């Protein structure tokens, strides 16, 4: 997937306890289509689509229950910031007093991501989009 922005905030993800209720709500409120996304060992994943462009994801509880490393048991949105190198961003966050909530992970067809907490306690993700064969 190479259509995601390569700088700034490039992905948003809703952590929710009720995927189908979220699907209905965001389709009705935003007019975006919500479709089944790529399968994941963590469970179902939905994509909010603006035409052919995925603009956000919706994920359900983890196998351990509705406790997400980015914000506990309450449903919430998490913003991801584009970086050139997720692993380097993780190292820099730790060196700067940040915390790793979810280690860097490859997401086939999309890229690589990690979830961090800044020194003041705010959670955010870093995302490195997968590049095509030429890049």
Produce a short descriptive summary:
This protein has two helices and eight strands, in the order E-H-E-E-E-E-H-E-E-E. The chain is α+β, with helices and mostly antiparallel strands and about 140 residues long.
Short key terms for the protein model shown above:
single chain; 135 residues; alpha+beta; 2,3-Dihydroxybiphenyl 1,2-Dioxygenase, domain 1; eight-stranded mixed beta sheet; 2 helices
Please write the CATH class name.
Alpha Beta
Strand residues, percent:
35-45%
User: What's the β-strand tally?
Assistant: 8
What structural class should be given to the helix and strand makeup? alpha+beta
Ranges with pLDDT <50 over ≥5 residues? none
Describe it for me?
This protein is α+β, with helices and mostly antiparallel strands. The protein contains 2 helices and 8 strands; from the N terminus they run βαββββαβββ. It has a single domain (9-61, 75-129), classed as Roll (2,3-Dihydroxybiphenyl 1,2-Dioxygenase, domain 1), CATH 3.10.180. The chain has helices at 19-30, 86-95, and strands at 9-15, 33-36, 45-50, 53-59, 76-82, 99-107, 111-117, 123-129. It has an 8-stranded mixed β-sheet with strand order 2-3-4-1-5-8-7-6, with helices on one face. The longest helix has 12 residues, at 19-30.
């Amino acid at each position: 997937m190479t259509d995601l922005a390569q700088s700034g905030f490039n992905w948003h993800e809703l952590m929710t306890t009720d995927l189908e209720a979220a699907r209905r709500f965001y389709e009705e409120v935003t007019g975006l289509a919500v479709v089944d996304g790529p399968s994941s060992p963590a469970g179902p994943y939905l994509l909010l689509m603006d035409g052919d462009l995925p603009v956000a994801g919706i994920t359900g509880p983890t196998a351990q229950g509705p406790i997400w490393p980015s914000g506990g048991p309450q449903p919430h949105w998490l913003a991801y910031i584009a970086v050139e190198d997720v692993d380097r961003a993780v190292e820099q966050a730790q060196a700067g007093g940040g915390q790793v909530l979810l280690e860097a992970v490859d997401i086939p067809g999309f890229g690589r991501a990690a979830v961090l907490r800044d020194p003041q306690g705010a959670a955010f993700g870093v995302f490195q989009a997968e590049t095509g064969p030429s890049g």
